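[INFO] parsing input record for Serine/threonine protein phosphatase
[DEBUG] input buffer:
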Amino acid sequence: MSAPLVIRAGASTDRGLRRESNEDALVVTAAMCAVADGMGGHEAGEVASALCVRTLGASPLFQLEDFRSFEVLEPEPPRDIARFRAVVERELRLDPEIPDDAIEAVRRVRSVLWQADQHIQHAVEGRAGTTVTGVWLLRIDGRMLWVVFNTGDSRTYRLVSPQPGGRAGEGEGGPRIEQLTVDHSEVQYLVSIGQLTASQALVHPRRNVITRALGTGQVWEPDVWVLPARHGDRLMLCSDGLTNELSPAHMARVLASVPHPKEAADVLLQAALRTGGRDNVTVIVADAVRPGEYAPGF
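[DEBUG] output buffer:
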């Protein structure tokens, strides 16, 4: 049985050097954090991202001791709900550390994101939307788990566990990060079918065209993953204003070498500004710690 864990997080956000306003938004609690990147013009984009994180932050789901008591408000189900459920259950059960009840946690996260999608649609009438990526740290059947979700191209990464004899996050050749989410974008689709390489995708003229977003009235469905959570885990959530400026190797070095999450987030943001700051930049560094182990970093 895993000991209880909470999130100790630090965050930074900036409009960047070329944007008139900041359409990014973020939320951090002891059990959940998320980054949203609005789009659709500075006023509407700001509304969309703010509504997204406000809905997540206000949801009782992330505050309940027993998530099963949260009432699921079902979005429009997939065309084949039985097949959808079977696929999710099969994916979760590939890992023997993931309890069966995790499927219910996935349903509830999906429900909250659907509520955010509806709030944004009603507020901006399809004139804007937002990406979102987030993590929820919860306990099911005595096991601590990360529920990771995303819609769009904001990303969540994990600092890779240390190799025997190495420092935190170090593998062969130095620190390394693992991307936990998969972008919902045109170039990612082309990479997945073999028409583009990852290197070509970085400079493709349509690299910023996303295929899913909340609030647009079109495709909103998130991808959701459930992963074992362990004491000392370090995750990073960010908008594409960070990943478009910094290499994975640079981000990994900072995450592995700066112990305090707020300081790590600040260092990453300043590095993104120094290398161009062409977009809004938002980053959250989230550590899994025991309750009372540290004061909140945010």
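[INFO] The chain has one domain: 4-69+79-165+172-287.
[INFO] shutting down worker
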